[in-house]
Amino acid sequence: MWLGEQLNCDSWPKQFNKCGINRTPVAFGKKGAILNISSASGMYPVPLLTVYSASKAFVDFFSRGLQAEYKSKGIIIQSVLPFFVATKLSKVRRPTLDKPSPERYVAAELNTVGLQTQTNGYLPHAIMGWVTTALLPAKMLNSYVMGMNVSQRARYLKKQKQG
Ligand SMILES: NC(=O)c1ccc[n+]([C@@H]2O[C@H](COP(=O)([O-])OP(=O)(O)OC[C@H]3O[C@@H](n4cnc5c(N)ncnc54)[C@H](OP(=O)(O)O)[C@@H]3O)[C@@H](O)[C@H]2O)c1
Question: Domain residues of the chain, as ranges?
Answer without folding.
Answer: 3-136
